[in-house]
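step 3/5: co-fold with coenzyme A
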Amino acid sequence: MEADPTVKPADDEIYISEIIVEVDGIRETQFHALRFPNRSAIYPEVIGRVGVSTVPPVASMRQLFVAEKFRYRGIGSQLVQACKGAARRDGCEALNLSLNPMNHHLGRKFYEPRGFSLAAEFADGDRCYAINLKRP
Ligand SMILES: CC(C)(COP(=O)(O)OP(=O)(O)OC[C@H]1O[C@@H](n2cnc3c(N)ncnc32)[C@H](O)[C@@H]1OP(=O)(O)O)[C@@H](O)C(=O)NCCC(=O)NCCS
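step 4/5: write tokens
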């Protein structure tokens, strides 16, 4: 039986996969949020992703994205949490990210409640948010 696409899956039906790649000596960990679209599906669909590159002592997170119909249920937070874990594992003391002007609102609404604070603002309008990973 096909799953009703309007019914959101329970949180325990979402999996986070981890892939580690190394390009030009820089290690990047890519996390994907996955779910199986129906009971008989063999392949999962990707409903979210993020990448974190680690160059100790600093890690950089990029391209955080959650598919629209799965937003506001904690998947973005789980992906950020996974990045913090990968950064700590790789010996980083800080995790940062860049927000372009179109996404400035996420600084206050999404990143600050998750422990990040504004670290720099650049001439092109991009803002850098960062979190100190040494604090518990
Ligand atoms: C930002 C994003 C990853 C959040 O994913 P998510 O799975 O909805 O995140 P969570 O459910 O963990 O958290 C939702 C929180 O983020 C806030 N939020 C998310 N998107 C928001 C938006 N567009 N505007 C305002 N607040 C937003 C919500 O207010 C909510 O806050 P609360 O927990 O205090 O209630 C998702 O909205 C997204 O993919 N957006 C488009 C791509 C993007 O902008 N990426 C970030 C580039 S740095």
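step 5/5: annotate
The mean pLDDT is 92.
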